Amino acid sequence: MVSTSMDPVRIAVVGAGVVGLSTAMCVSKLVPRCSITVISDKFSPDTTSDVAAGMLIPHVYPNTPIPTLKQWFRETFDHLFAIANSAEAGDAGVHLVSGWQIFQSIPAEEVPFWADVVLGFRKMTKAELKKFPQHVFGHAFTTLKCESPAYLPWLEKRLKGSGVLILTRRIGDLWELHPSFDVVVNCSGLGSRQLAQDSEMFPMRGQVLNVQAPWVKHFIRDGSGLTYIYPGTSNVILGGTRQQGDWNLSPDAEISRGIFSRCCALEPSLQGACDIREKVGLRPFRPAGVRLQTEFLAQDGRRLPVVHHYGHGSGGISVHWGTALEAARLVSECVQAPRTPTPKSNL
Fold first, then answer.
1. Residues in CB range of 341: below 8 A, 6 or more apart
2. InterPro entries in the record, alphabetically (predicted)?
3. 179: Cα separation from own chain's centroid
4. Are β-strands 236-239 and 202-212 bridged in parallel, bridged antiparallel, or unpaired?
């Protein structure tokens, strides 16, 4: 690399959703004497993360071993739990929420792998299940909700406070960042179709409704994950959809009606909800799951280390801090590698 060992290592993080900003934060904590620039064409409130409900209930990724997934989830839960228990909680949009996950038939796994990470996990009682006549089994627990429209600006503010530069720019090719940067972290989500030439990446369209129903205090999630009611600080999120390969960002009125009627079937009081707003997000889906990997781009004998950190699908917020810590460790390895080419011996 160009710089001498005395210069700070110049690190670019591409992408400013929850994955990009948390990665920049973890790198700034883990890699000493580096200068970090976050580069993105979109920032909150215009990211995919801004549409996410932000409930901490992890998704399974085919190529990620359960112990790894559990570690990512636990690290994320611990990080957000500390924020929820601090004076920053309101600004950061992080709070505890209790509720139920309900099933129409008994699930294969009655106790999921994450049961001892969330708080107070137990099977629902017969009395509780009376609320849901179509369902025969359920989990009751307390978890965290991380509201991106507050959390992302809060992270941005903290990054700026620690000297991180924030740059609005569209990147067409990661090689553009050479030689201005020594290491690049690719957190571009769906943008990795182009930036990492990853043809496995595709959108998983999600449509939700934001409604005013302040009397709804408990979350309700159907075990399939397709119908959910997630109360937040300023509204209740009703969902949802998983439409594979659909790039349409315009709300579909028929889908909205379907979501509303499915949610009202679980919580009839929602009939009285008002101020209904539709939101659409394209989740960065990758069949194999999260890609956490270092790649060395090379042109004309010059190298640019790229740490890829994308492909979280619909489970990004649940594991974002854990995967960001892992990405930061990969960056740290790149930085510790010899930064100047070793001169060839004359022997």
1. none
2. D-amino_acid_oxidase_CS (IPR006181), DAO (IPR023209), FAD-dep_OxRdtase (IPR006076)
3. 30
4. antiparallel
